[in-house]
Request: fold
Amino acid sequence: MAQGPSDAWVGALLDLAVANQTWYLALGTTAWQSDGTGGTETATSGYARIRIDNKMAASSGGSMTNDEVIQFTASAAANAGPFQYYAVFSASSGGTFYYSGQFSQPLSWVSGQPVQILVGNFTVFNQDT
Reply:
C-alpha cells in the first residue's frame, strides 16, 4: 500500500509554489543537506544565481521540468567546475532554501562561454513517488 502524497497533490503544490514564489538556481561543488546547510555554492568570477520559476512548465506526474533554456549568462574568465550539485533558493543571494539535488551530468564552465541547461534537462520532482 502506497503512503504519502499523490503525484496530483505534489503537482498542485509545485504549481502553487511557482505561481507564488520566486525560485533561483544555485550551482555547487558539494551537496546541500535537506535543511539547506552543507552545500558549497560556486565562487566563480561573474557567477550569479539564475531565476528559474519563470522557466518551468506546469507540473506533471508530481514533477516540474524547465520549458525554457536556463542560462548562466556571465562567462567565466577561466574554466570552472565541475558543478555536480544544485539548490533552489528564494533569492538571488541568501534567501530561503527550497530544494537541492545532483545533476546526472556535472556542468562545467568553459572560459568565455555561458553555462546552459537545455529545455527538459532540469526537473524538480517528488522524491517519494
